[in-house]
Design goal:
It is an enzyme of class 3 (hydrolase). It is built from 6 helices and 15 strands. It has about 300 residues and is α+β, with helices and mostly antiparallel strands. The chain has 2 domains: about 140 residues, Nucleoside Triphosphate Pyrophosphohydrolase, CATH 3.90.79; about 140 residues, Nucleoside Triphosphate Pyrophosphohydrolase. The strands form 4 sheets. Strands 10, 11, 12, 13, 14 and 15 form a 6-stranded mixed beta sheet that branches. A 4-stranded mixed beta sheet has the order 3-1-5-4, sandwiched between helices. It has a 3-stranded antiparallel beta sheet with strand order 7-8-9, with no helix packed on it. β8 and β9 form a beta hairpin. α5 crosses α6.
Amino acid sequence: MTCEVFAGAGFQLDSPPLLSRSTVDRREELRESLDGGAKLWHTGKVVLVDAKGRTQIGEDSRLIVQPAIDFGDRPSPNAVLLGVEDDVSYWALRTDHDGAQECWRDLRSGGALLNDTDAGLLTTAVGLLGWHDNARYCAVCGAATTRVRVGWARRCSGCDREEYPRTDPAVICLVSDGEDHVLLARQPIWPQYRFSVLAGFVEVGESLEACVAREIQEEVGVEVSGTRYLGSQPWPFPRSLMLGFAAIADRNAPLAPADGEIEEARWVHRDTILAALDAEGEPVDGLRLPPGVSIAYRMIKGWATSKP
């Protein structure tokens, strides 16, 4: 794989990915004991998240948080410490409330509305609580695990092993021809007309660059070169970290969409992408772009608005 720079490949993300924004201090030193977090509990705030990753967002596009002391005089054993800002601690708790009301929204529908602080809080809360839901038993001996380090680890009741939150790395790559066309594809399960850039999970023993080359070859049957890094975004659905890349491919090479995985792949001209951006979610020429909260949108917009 080469790393040379091609004409038209020098674009950047148009702005930081929306779910990469964060302002709170995670305060790792407070995770060592529940007493450390308890020092800030009485002035703390709690973000409630339901089983579908939804929370309350107010009309002012701010998270609706609850005083921590409403949940007891000390941190709840089920609470996770998200961070501290201006001497206020922020925590997350799972709620069994059915957040079906209009003001309860998930990251996909509400993440773009939030400011930097709230986006970081909710992204961390959704990912961390989701990990706890699926890490209740030890992967080594099968015994039950309990939360420790104010929600940033679990300890096995059988072998005393500590386990930490998992993040699954995935590459996402914008492939262009180095000029005015970008390669987009759609999966069969996506909403009608939805197209995006190509992505896939990193395999064991594989570098990020090798994963880019393999995934593009497997999904659409073309070889890429000039691979370079753009940026990253947490994607807690349930625990991915999207690592964004750009690469170049030959537009004349035949496309071979992976059967059952890629329903359609096609080269799209820059003018069509610009029109789709202006359409704000409405299809243009049978194409609808990914939502603005995704790093895919930031990559596509960054490419489309750069000079070829």
